[in-house]
């Protein structure tokens, strides 16, 4: 299980983004469980394709909100997103070129999923608190 519970997620306090967080945590959790079984590489790559595109959509949605509210830590937040996508790309290319899942790759994936969960629970949470305050001020 990931560290951040997928239920009752109110991180950003905006419906679409928080729905995406729930979907991300559930799907990455599913992926991590699949990695621990003997699932075919083709199916893992299919899951990764979905995760890659959904994660990009989420990061774009979230970054737009952060920009709209002139979030002061936008650059470092967006940099974390970029780094995550870079790591995800590495996992995907390793799986494509090396074929079988090995222990090192399994560990990398577990670390990545944990990282995302922590990002949502901490970095996104801080951004969400800022946005909530901004919204209250403008009401
Ligand atoms: Fe997020
Ligand atoms: Fe984020």
- Count of extended strands: 0
Please identify which CATH superfamily we are dealing with.
Hemerythrin-like
Termini, distance in Å? 38 Å
Strand and helix order: HHHH
Number of contiguous helices: 4
Looking at CATH, which topology would you report? Four Helix Bundle (Hemerythrin (Met), subunit A)
Average pLDDT over all residues: 90
Rg computed from alpha carbons, rounded to a whole number of angstroms? 16 Å
- Which spans have pLDDT < 50 for at least 5 consecutive residues? none
Shape: elongated
Please bin the fraction of helical residues: over 70%
| Biggest sheet layout | none
CATH architecture: Up-down Bundle
CATH class: Mainly Alpha
Q: How many domain units?
A: 1
Hetero groups in this structure are: fe (ii) ion
**What portion of residues belong to β-strands?**
under 5%
SSE class? mainly alpha
